[in-house]
Amino acid sequence: MFKQNTISSLLLCAIFALALFGCKTKEKKDEANKVAIIVSTLNNPWFVFLAEQAKEKANELGYEAKIFDSQNNTAQETDHFENALASGYDAILFNPTDADGSIVNVKNAKIAGVPVFCMDREVNDPDAATSQILSDSYSGSVSIAKKFVESLNKKGNYVEILGMVGDNNTWNRSRGFHSVVDHYPDLKMVAQQSADFDRNKAMEVLESVLQANPDIDAVFCGNDAMAMGAYQALVAAGKADKVKVFGFDGAEDVVNSIQDEKIVATGMQFPAVMAQTAATFADEYFKGKRDFPKKMPVAVELVTSKNVGNYVAYGAKK
């Protein structure tokens, strides 16, 4: 009798467990998929716009979405990935903090069966992310460099302010720039320093550089935040009308500064395109698609005083 009762109890437990599992599965199936949006920093308006565009598109497609700020810290980024995976997020739209340091997080998501779609910044592993949607930083900087050479009449001393050394965009922009400028021997780089894509750091970097090299003719900056920081340093030094500043991004304050002829040129990126494409790819993944481009380039357009009327912050006028 005891044995029979034990078997009956075990069968009842098994039936209950299966029923509970079935309810949870049905419950999960009926729930909207959740999308985590993990970005390198929200301390830069450009990345705020990128994140908000991704969230807006995910919401429009019917998904719950939440933005996570890594504060340019790979450890913080790792925490966000762990939290996203533990909390049942079904896809991650990702703007990495470091091309190498972020690989492990993307791989962990892949192992967990969660697709990762990189936006604007890449990781140095072609198979880790489901897809990487990236600005063509190299070609964009080639266009800026041609304008740079023309504006300086092929001669002069200049400073290059680099972005984050762990970000491939930093070096793609630098390489694109030098692929043109280095062909002109009378254009001499007197300093090259990193300011981590940060406005205040760029101002401090250029203030320091000007003490050792007061007679410069131009500054090429790896993003627009640094371009504005460099411009501030030039204003403080009384050199804003003598030194030409070039940026990269298409941020609102630089678009306005080009209109006011304070900044010479920038490379207009299209963060809305990258963010919305990433969200759309996630939607397609949820619906069964698995064949995505490993790397999808998004063109960068040169903005100068001649065509600035065609642009607004972070894109072209509609």
Automatic annotation (TrEMBL):
Residues 35-289 form the Periplasmic binding protein domain. It is found in: Cell envelope. It comes from the Bacteria. Residues 1-19 form the signal peptide. This is D-ribose ABC transporter substrate-binding protein. Belongs to the bacterial solute-binding protein 2 family. GO terms for molecular function: carbohydrate binding. Keywords: Signal. It comes from Persicitalea jodogahamensis. InterPro entries: Peripla_BP_I (IPR028082), SBP_2_dom (IPR025997). One of its GO terms (cellular component) is cell envelope. PROSITE patterns: PROKAR_LIPOPROTEIN.
